[in-house]
Amino acid sequence: MKKIVLMMFTFIVIHQYRSQDKKAEIKEIDVELKELAISSPASIILLGISPSELETPKSKKAIALSLVNSFKKNEGIPDTYAFEITPYWLLRPKEMNSLKYAGLKEDKEKIYKQNIFNELNRASFSLGFVRDLTLNSDDDIKNPTFAISVRGTLIKVRTQDNIKRIIKEDSAKKAQLKLISKYLSGEEEKEEIQNINKKCEDGTLNLTDCEKELTEISMKLLKKYEENNKEANDVDYYKNLLEASPLLAVDFAGGYSTFFSDNKFSSNHFGKLGFWLTLNSGIDFTNKKKPEEEKKLNFYGIVRYLDDGTTMDDNQQFFRTRNYDFGGKAELTYKRFSISWEYIYRINDIENTFRSNGVLAYKVSDKVYINAAFGKNYGEKDNLISFLGLNWGLDSEKPSVFIEPPK
Predict the structure, then answer these.
(1) Cα distances (Å, whole numbers) of residue 36 to 157, 167, 184, 392
(2) What is the pTM of this model?
(3) Phi and psi dihedrals of 386, rounded to 5?
(4) What pLDDT is recorded for position 58?
(5) Residue 6 CB: number of other CB atoms within 10 A?
(6) Is the pLDDT of residue 154 over 70?
(7) d(Cα 43, Cα 50) in Å, to the nearest integer?
(8) Comparing C-alpha atoms, which of 37, 56, 116 is closest to residue 299?
(9) Of 218, 188, 215, nearest to 6 (Cα)?
(10) Are 326 and 344 contacting, i.e. CB atoms less than 8 angstroms apart?
């Protein structure tokens, strides 16, 4: 009689469970990538009219536009424009997942190894235009200027702690996906019913408790599913881990510019040719309990060679100088704000000089960023830095990577 009652309750539970609306599909978790700001394109940095000259590739946008306006000019119309494209984000492979994005791959010994050249294929190309490049304080003619550039990350080394946290978080998400899969397929329900029936048959539970356990199993599993589904899709902390400050990153950049003196096509001149490396390291203070409150302290260093053909002599003739730049920057990020100070020392054929300025950046939205700078530029004349920049991305949606469901 006891077995008959148990069979009846089991049948009722299975019927109720299967009649529930479980149209949801088992799919990967979508992790939208985050970014503090869209960096000034290398073409603008080459021309020396960027709010900051120590920039790293921060943007995940396939296409980005930049406007830079100098407070020294009062036309009210932005003087500098730039267009930057990153082919990787236009053509990124569909099989890209979170671990591949982080440059982590499991070897035969089930140990994750880091590919330090993982971000090399995410190089960007930019085209910059300046309506009137000021060459010196006595320059009163129009000098439209064009610049092209390339920029990317040559090497990125993550900290061992960051790697362990990424692997741990990824494993936890996959475990949650596995539980969700078992619920949706009915496998978890079968296991739970078998466990209850076994306890009922061996006398661990009496008939009343068996009835109660079987009756409540549907609600119990549904609640468990909802909790797992919510936790699996809470990826704010995972985003921070993927974009955490590196132990060391080495970025490369290079570009060429040309300008047209006196606004004449026939007066085309060599502008600038530059190559540089930017080093980046930092500390991430973001709390797991409040992952939306980004807190970072980053440090940058730069080594640059610049062949500059925009210098004029006393006879108003252009000549070329070789410049060697060395410098650094400290940057503090808190939530939507970023504040930094940079110093670059320049050695050239004429004089040794330096650039020192502060930069403030604010994230208005995921697509719009504002930055401003104030300080001293190279040289002793007309050396005030006073910029206001506006950058925005053209992507219709945020780039994302995936946490794949277990096979």
Answers:
(1) 20, 23, 38, 12
(2) 0.80
(3) -150, 90
(4) 78
(5) 19
(6) yes
(7) 9
(8) 56
(9) 215
(10) yes
